[in-house]
Amino acid sequence: MNPKNVVFKKICKDKSVGVYMGRRDFVDRVDSVDPVDGVILIDPEALQGRKVFVTLSCTFRYGRDDMDVMGIAFRRELYLCTRQVYPALQDREKGTHTRTQAKLLRKLGHDAYPFFFEFPDNLPCSVALQPPAHDVGKQCAVEFEVHAFSAESQDAKIRKRSSVKLTIRKVQYAPETEGAAPSVETTRDFVMSDKPLHVKASLDKEIYYHGEPVKVHVSVTNHSSKAIKNVIVSVDQVSTVVLYSNDSYIKSVAIEEPGDSVSPGATLQKTYTLLPLLANNRERRGIALDGKLKHEDTNLASSSIVKDGVLKEVMGIMVSYRIMVKLIVAGMIGSSEVGLEIPFKLMHPKPDAVKER
Predict the structure, then answer these.
(1) What is the rounded average pLDDT of the residues 55-69?
(2) How far lies 86's CA from each of 22, 42, 117, in Å?
(3) Is this prediction's pTM over 0.90?
(4) What residues are paired with 172 via a beta bridge?
């Protein structure tokens, strides 16, 4: 989170409107979301009688702006809320909801006006699919934006010189409670083999933090007459674009393939350590990332947690993670696979939890 003394500001070109905010990250706690608050600073002379409005929007973008064809935009507004800031429709004290707003109003003077939005509980978090390395344009993403502008009315044409946009993020932190440590096992019988192959894989916990190694405990008991030629353990990121196509993108973001083998009648007990990081996947198209602000780095997208009763179709992009354990089994004609899938969550810890640790 940003230090308490940091203020983000952006002023339009004709100096009529400026946005001041104490933070740009707003936390989704599943059952509630931090409200968006800030202050608008106006210049009455530059306004020349125009009104001032501020908008909070959530946009699902599935193509660059320059790809718009015949007036059809490759984006969809998931949420849009506009409020009039000036002339004020209510007393400044009633419109002031946070201490940050109160401090900014005292510092900026009488030409400053507060604004306040509450997120509905059915909006996705900020997330984007990584574009190709040579493409710097905006691609498939869920984005949030605060847009302040001056105009004769809310529906009047907005002049670029009289408007200013500030990108914000809606983020989720790991919940305080988590489920049992995941564990999966399977038994496979083979033709012309009297006894089976038994495989078990488990994790130490359900939730891992970004940058934290994931230890996968694998146990193989090979009573069969088949030889295991190789054991491959990977972390898969599954990104599902649920809004318009329900397409899924499965990308391996970490992999261990040391070449372990298990002979007939033998056993294997081993712990594999995987580290899923964006640093090892920067050149790969389609990797889901947490939404980023300009000039700031980001990380692999966090696991999506959805409130009960909310339709997943409106969540834009859903992200999940799983451990894949594959055993390559030798055969007379060719090889076959025995696989296990272990779901887990990859998220940011709450800032308070980091301090405690």
Answers:
(1) 71
(2) 21, 8, 16
(3) no
(4) 28
